């Protein structure tokens, strides 16, 4: 866990705080020059009234210089805060990426790629807005009134107090509008999230739902969420609007100006205020209210930034997978895989997904994991690449505990082909080269040929250079899988963990896939998560799992003869294969026998 994780909107700026302070100092200085320009303007008018026609060049020039300086300082302050925000964005994204590289894959899967991308992209962007825009405004909102007040007190304390009284009134109204704000903001975001969830559900479910009805159910939920969001917004607006508007009206320069005008005129009439002081107070005093106006929008920015920071913190707080110190790391010795009394729970107080599992996969053999749905097959496969660390026992790759091995060494020894095949946004060739960036084009093509992928890749618009992944070319599930198989073939790692795909699009694809797999498996230590039993008849050993425990272990024929869970699963499978739609039609041809993996054409 990253203890340095910033928790407050201001603490999050720590990495760039020097530049932010500089930006704020520039903004404050700009405000000072703005006020000095106004004071000088008052002086100019005073001089002109006293001696009409005698132009006071020096103060006039002073007004010009101060106005230009105020403008330049303000521009520069925004420049600095934006540069700082850009730097902060980069720093935060790098920290997040570095942290995620050390977090277990299981944890990343739990949070979800979409949510992570949103944090790295949108939430960090949200902070940019906060840092870039709010910091100079903050400096202005605090420095402006403070300096004005000092100037007013120096000019005339009675008028100064009157201006402060008006502002205080504005603040009271504002705080009334802000009453219960935290709770309202929380409810606002909850309502918004309900709308987002309903939108996602509505859009995602559309293909399924519309084949059954017109989507009225999900649409109804979506509309209900929208209505309650609207209802809440109206309620909030009504609640806050009267005092909010009153506050805005009072903090507007006009009321301050009116009070100073009236009080100044009255004092002048009683001859206790001279005209030029009155003029200076009028000019400077109105600026005080104006400087405070941005405070309202700042609250909004801070609220949004806080939510983003909370989400960033949540990601940064995900536990990192312990890494072995380089000097204590061991390298795998061979292509064997051993589970020694392995137990694993997803939740500390939950049930064991894998319990006391021991087996040895000798180099060059095929070990199949079978069992009913939820038996723990996928979990066992995912303990090998350390999606999670075991709760008890050890997983040994090449004789070394995976936790005592450098991640590079583990990845160099084992390749994985999982069901959720991922193609990243790059060319097909780059996708195949993943993990072997120096592989030649010939090697890539040879791997694709072995994976039965060459022909369809060649037929794509730009062949191997066609872009895959998000917004890339559309590929069928089977085609994507064959690309990942080509990737694993090219990697040529001695141990292969294969989570067999369940959904092959069509028999032709299935045949190609089986051929590709047979190529991939040749000569390797294979751990095969078999969802369809036909693939495992020839396995060297079959591990039958039941509720996380090893129920049976053996070869196909022995297990059938044993007549236990495997035999039951197998008979169920055979019956399913012989199942027909019509009693008169002969039993359907079983899927092209993937059982004979080794016999398939290469
Ligand atoms: N990420 C997870 N978090 C919590 N529990 C999980 C998670 N993944 C799986 N489980 C639970 O662990 C148990 C084993 O699941 P696993 O996916 O390993 O079974 P499986 O044999 O591969 O099932 P299937 O054949 O249906 O894919 C199940 O009870 C499942 O609900």
TrEMBL record:
Question: Where is composition skewed (Pro residues) in this entry?
Answer: 584-593
User: Which residue range or ranges hold the ABC transporter domain?
Assistant: 337-572
Does the record's keyword annotation contain Oxidoreductase? no
Q: Where in the cell is it found?
A: Cell membrane
Q: Mind listing the UniProt keywords for this protein, alphabetically?
A: ATP-binding, Membrane, Nucleotide-binding, Transmembrane, Transmembrane helix
| UniProt topology in membrane | Multi-pass membrane protein
On whether ATP-binding is a keyword of this UniProt record, the answer is yes
**Top-rank lineage group of the source organism:** Bacteria
Q: What Gene3D superfamilies has UniProt attached to this entry? A: ABC transporter type 1, transmembrane domain, P-loop containing nucleotide triphosphate hydrolases
Transmembrane spans: 20-45, 57-73, 137-155, 161-178, 246-269, 275-302
What region holds the ABC transmembrane type-1 domain? 22-304
Q: Name one GO molecular function term.
A: ATP binding
Against Pfam families, the record matches this protein to: ABC_membrane, ABC_tran
Annotated region Disordered: the residues are 580-602
Where is this chain primarily localised? membrane
Name assigned to this protein: ABC transporter ATP-binding protein
Q: Which organism is it from?
A: Thiorhodococcus fuscus
């Amino acid at each position: 866990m990253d203890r340095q994780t910033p928790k407050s909107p201001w603490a999050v700026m720590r990495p760039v705080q020097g530049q932010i302070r500089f930006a704020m100092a520039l903004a404050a200085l700009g405000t000072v020059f703005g006020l000095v320009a106004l004071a000088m303007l008052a002086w100019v008018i005073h001089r002109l009234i006293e001696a009409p026609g005698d132009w006071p060049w020096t103060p006039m020039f002073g007004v010009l210089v101060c106005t230009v300086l105020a403008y330049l300082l303000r521009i520069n302050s925004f420049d600095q805060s934006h540069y700082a925000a850009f730097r902060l964005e980069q720093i935060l994204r790098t920290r997040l990426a570095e942290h995620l590289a050390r977090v277990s894959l299981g944890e990343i899967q739990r949070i979800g790629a979409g949510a992570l991308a949103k944090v790295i992209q949108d939430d960090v962007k949200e902070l940019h807005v906060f840092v870039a825009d709010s910091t100079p405004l903050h400096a202005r909102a605090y420095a402006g009134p403070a300096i004005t007040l000092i100037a007013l007190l120096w000019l005339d304390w009675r008028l100064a107090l009157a201006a402060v009284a008006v502002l205080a009134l504005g603040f009271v109204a504002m705080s009334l509008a802000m009453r219960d704000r935290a709770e309202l903001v929380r409810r606002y975001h909850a309502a918004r999230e309900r709308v987002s969830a309903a939108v996602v559900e509505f859009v995602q479910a559309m293909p399924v739902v519309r084949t059954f009805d017109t989507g009225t159910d999900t649409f109804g939920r979506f509309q209900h969420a929208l209505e309650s969001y609207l209802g809440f917004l109206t309620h909030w607006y009504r609640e806050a609007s009267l005092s909010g508007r009153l506050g805005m009206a009072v903090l507007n320069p006009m009321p301050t100006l009116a009070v100073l005008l009236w009080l100044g005129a009255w004092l002048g009439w009683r001859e206790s205020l001279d005209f030029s002081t009155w003029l200076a107070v009028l000019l400077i005093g109105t600026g005080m209210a104006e400087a405070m106006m941005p405070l309202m929008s700042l609250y909004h920015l801070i609220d949004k930034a806080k939510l983003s920071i909370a989400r960033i913190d949540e990601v940064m707080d995900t536990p990192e997978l312990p890494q072995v110190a380089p000097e204590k790391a061991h390298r795998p010795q061979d292509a064997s895989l051993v589970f020694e009394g392995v137990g694993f729970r997803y939740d500390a107080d939950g049930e064991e997904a894998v319990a006391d599992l021991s087996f040895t996969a000798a180099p060059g053999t095929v070990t199949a994991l079978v069992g009913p749905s939820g038996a723990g097959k996928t979990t066992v496969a995912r303990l090998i690449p350390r999606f999670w660390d075991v709760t008890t026992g050890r997983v040994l790759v090449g004789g070394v505990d995976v936790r005592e091995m450098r991640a590079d060494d583990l990845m160099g020894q084992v390749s994985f082909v999982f069901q959720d095949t991922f193609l990243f946004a790059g060319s097909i060739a780059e996708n195949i080269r993943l993990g072997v960036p120096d592989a030649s084009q010939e090697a890539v093509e040879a791997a694709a040929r072995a994976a039965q992928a060459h022909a369809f890749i060649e037929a794509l618009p730009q062949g191997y250079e066609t872009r895959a992944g998000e917004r890339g070319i559309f590929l069928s599930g089977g085609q994507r899988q064959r690309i990942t198989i080509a990737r694993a073939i090219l990697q040529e790692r001695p141990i292969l963990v294969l989570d067999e795909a369940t959904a092959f699009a069509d028999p032709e694809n299935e045949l190609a896939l089986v051929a590709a797999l047979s190529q991939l498996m040749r000569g390797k230590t294979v751990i095969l998560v078999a969802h369809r039993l036909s693939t495992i008849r020839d396995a060297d050993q079959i591990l039958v799992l039941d509720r996380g425990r090893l129920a049976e272990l053996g070869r196909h024929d022995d297990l059938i003869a044993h007549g236990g869970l495997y035999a039951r699963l197998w008979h169920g499978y055979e019956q399913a294969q012989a199942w027909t739609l019509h009693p008169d039609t002969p039993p359907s041809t079983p899927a092209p026998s993937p059982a004979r993996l080794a016999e398939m054409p290469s």
